[in-house]
Design brief:
Layout lengths: L1 H18 L5 E7 L2 E7 L1 E7 L6 H7 L4 H11 L13 E7 L4 E7 L4 E7 L10 E7 L3 E10 L7 H7 L4 H10 L15 E11 L2 E15 L2 E9 L5 E4 L20 E4 L2 E5 L6 E4 L2 E4 L5 E3 L4 E8 L5 E6 L4 E11 L8 E2 L4 E5 L9 E8 L2 E3 L1 H6 L12 H23 L1
Antiparallel strand pairs: 1-2, 3-4, 4-5, 5-6, 6-7, 8-9, 9-10, 10-11, 11-12, 13-16, 14-15, 16-23, 17-22, 18-19, 18-21, 19-20, 20-22, 20-23, 23-24
Helix pairs in contact: 2-3, 4-5
Length: 416
């Protein structure tokens, strides 16, 4: 008889769950020899943040009472900006079956969410809500991949995309080797990259990349290596297998990769607009309007203004007698003005076609001691990076052995 009663109660529970919201259900338990219904008294709604939404507006849109929504917003201030919700991020709202607010969660990014929970029982003077930014539970998997530059996939982004990897991995690799390779012009068919990296998973789904631990880039006849290592100052940096820093005084390119060179340095070039033979004292990179243009080295801005045929132009003075110029910009970066100090990689402006230009591109120039030099040739003459400190070299060698051992094992397994 008791088994039959429990069966009936379970059937009622299923019926009730289907008739209410997705999270509402009834559970049958035994207490003192009889079955008792214990209703789960909340319902959950999951959705995506609409454009231009605020926290208060989103709560009110989901029938949270005005005073409760206002109190929740006030409780959040100081922990999270309630006006900074981003469109299409997921959120979850939990209410009682009679509509009272219980909890709200909002995805801040791939790693964290905002949680606002109503306190049912609190002492006088305690806040009405518990508010916290909570990390998502995640798993970090160490993985290695290899990708090849081919006719079909001629860029690093394309080669990695072809094996199912995200553009962010390509950007991180380009940043590691940015002092060694111009990814706009120096990749060749048959070049290969092998990477040891952390893949972050959440609920069985890809959630982003962690640290790259090591990489090998075969570029033509060169074999470039990179090992991530924490220096004596506790900061991570990149070193080649000899322990020399991969950070160079100058980056190989002022643009992210994907653009291509349309005109090289030349003392005799037929000008595409004026039809006369002129010296072209820089390198032209074709790129979409708005592409970020960055400082190739630290320095001081000498010029940020309109400059005739050059259009909007930025000139930066660097150490050792170098000066770089960036022509035909559509806009200047924030804080870029004469006298401003810039760091390597800082935004100087955006690609445009101002001045004498037939299409959107960046004309990039280098002077050394007041004389224009070929950027490609000059950068190839830059000295190698500073070696790692002698006192930490033994630790670096152990890390190098671990990283390249893992990569060698991966390549061996792949050949089987």
């Amino acid at each position: 008889m008791r088994l039959r009663a429990l069966t009936i109660l379970c059937a009622l529970a299923v019926f009730s769950a289907r008739c209410s919201s997705p999270s509402a259900r009834i559970v049958a338990v035994a207490e003192g020899g009889r079955d008792v219904l214990l209703p789960i008294s909340t319902s959950t709604f999951e959705g995506r943040v609409p454009r231009a939404a605020t926290l208060e507006g989103l709560l009110r849109q989901n029938q949270v009472e005005r005073d409760v929504a206002s109190s929740a917003v006030e409780a959040v201030r100081g922990i999270f900006n309630p006006k900074s919700l981003k469109a299409d991020r997921s959120y979850r709202l939990v209410r009682t079956l009679d509509g009272l607010f219980r909890e709200f969660q909002y995805q801040i990014d791939a790693e964290r969410f905002l949680r606002i929970a109503f306190k049912d029982h609190r002492t006088e003077g305690e806040p009405q809500f518990d508010v916290a930014v909570v990390p998502y539970p995640r798993q970090v998997e160490l993985e290695a991949i290899t990708a090849e530059i081919s006719q079909e996939h001629s860029s690093l982004i394309g080669a990695l995309d072809a094996i199912g990897e995200n553009v962010q991995l390509a950007l991180s690799l380009a940043d590691i080797f940015s002092g060694e390779v111009d990814f706009n012009s120096e990749l060749q068919r048959g070049d290969r990259v092998t990477v040891l990296f952390e893949r972050i998973m959440r609920d069985g789904q890809f959630a982003g990349y962690g640290d790259i631990q090591g990489a090998i880039l075969e570029n033509g006849k060169r074999r470039l290596t990179g090992v991530r290592f924490l220096g004596a100052n506790g900061k991570a940096a990149w070193y080649d297998e000899q322990g020399r820093s991969l950070k160079r005084e100058f980056l190989k390119s002022p643009l992210p990769f994907e653009p291509h060179i349309t005109s090289n340095f030349s003392m005799h070039r037929l000008h595409p607009i004026f039809g006369s033979v002129r010296a072209h004292l820089g390198v032209d990179y074709a790129a979409p309007i708005g592409t970020a243009v960055i400082a190739v080295a630290a320095g001081t801005v000498e010029l940020a203004a309109w400059s005739g045929e050059a259009g909007r132009m930025v000139t930066v003075k660097h150490a050792s007698g170098y000066e770089t110029s960036y022509l035909h910009l559509s806009a200047f970066g924030p804080g870029i003005h004469p006298g401003a100090h810039v760091t390597q990689g800082q935004l100087l402006g955006r690609v445009g076609m101002t001045g004498a230009a037939t299409g959107p591109h960046l004309d990039y120039r280098i002077k050394k001691n007041g004389i224009h030099v070929n950027p490609s040739v000059e950068l190839s003459r830059m000295p190698p990076g500073v070696p790692i400190d002698a006192e930490v070299m033994p630790a670096f060698l152990l890390e190098r052995q671990r990283v390249f051992g893992a990569l060698d094992q991966f390549l061996t397994d792949k050949k089987r």
